[in-house]
Amino acid sequence: MKFESLRIAGLRCLEGVSITPAPGISVFTGANGAGKTSILEAAYLLSHGRSFRAGSRDVLLKRGAATLSVFAEVRSAEGRTRRLGLGRESGRWQARVDGDAVSLGGLVQECAVVCFEPGSHDLIAGPSDERRRFLDWGLFHVEHAFVNQWRRYQRALKQRNALLRAGPPLDPSLMEPWESELASTGEALSAFRVGYVERLLPHIQGFMGNVLPELGEFTLRYKQGWDEASSLADTLLERRGRDLGRGHTTAGPHRADFTIAFEHAPLREHLSRGQEKLCALACLLGQASLHAEMCGEWPVVCLDDLASELDRTHQEWVVAQLMGRDVQVLVTGTEVPHALSGQSVDVFHVEQGVVTALL
């Protein structure tokens, strides 16, 4: 997938921005705070329905603006072009594909973007919801049946939690249908994730051996969110009293996680911050590579503040990995990164929210 055009209005400091990215590598340069990262953020919004930056969705709006909008034309490897749009007004998101209103999930399935940015180490060191989103985003694109199961599970989880919050006395006849739905869809979600991890791991290992060879063999283990010796149905029944006291469901795929380990660093805490970043980079590239294998095309790859996040050796390695593939890459930096010197790239200058293409 590649962006043929990208139009942004009302997003942070960007207003009336129109960009035609190169099919290969586009570099956005400018001073800190000029709006470079917000360009990548716009592309990411279309693909994930949320920002990769911390903070509420309301802070995405440009100061004084009532709405924000991101529009794009994207072209698939088969040559099909789709028009995508995402807007926010009065606290509500509106998504469109080819002019038709769709859900955020429907939009996400049409746009694939992975992003390595200063907060990417949270994939390794952050809370478990980051890792669940990582797996589920990949599954949204390669397993269409996953989407329906995920939606059914979320609905059942919401209903069970509402009954738990209502407090005692708890009517089993009201709880049992939702627990049955949770159990069936939850087991299905877990099976999808396990299968995805099995396909994903070799791709990550291929990149990990290059970025962190000193740590030895890399492994990733999925933890389903309840005792593997029990079924989810039995676990929900057994925990019903405990969950009633807590007011929420404490077992299920919404509590899942995955753990990483290296031969010479068996615990995540053994990694430095720099190693966490390189580990996250290998995971993101591995996911992009699996997406290409299963979908027939690479997602767009965004590299935010590349020169600051990676040393020169790893900058050159990332560029070498991407240059030989049919992939669109969006890069930001205060200047063109050294690793891209002499390469065929399109350069854009960003200043106070204004984007100018440079010859």
UniProtKB/TrEMBL annotation:
One of its GO terms (biological process) is DNA synthesis involved in DNA repair. Residues 4-354 form the RecF/RecN/SMC N-terminal domain. Pfam families: SMC_N. Keywords: ATP-binding, Cytoplasm, DNA damage, DNA repair, DNA replication, DNA-binding, Nucleotide-binding, SOS response. The RecF protein is involved in DNA metabolism; it is required for DNA replication and normal SOS inducibility. RecF binds preferentially to single-stranded, linear DNA. It also seems to bind ATP. GO terms for molecular function: ATP binding; single-stranded DNA binding. ATP binds at G30, A31, N32, G33, A34, G35, K36, T37. It is found in: Cytoplasm. This is DNA replication and repair protein RecF. Belongs to the RecF family. GO terms for cellular component: cytoplasm. The keyword DNA repair applies. InterPro entries: DNA-binding_RecF, DNA-binding_RecF_CS, P-loop_NTPase, RecF/RecN/SMC_N, RecF_2. The gene is recF. The lineage of its organism: Bacteria, Pseudomonadati, Pseudomonadota, Gammaproteobacteria, Lysobacterales.
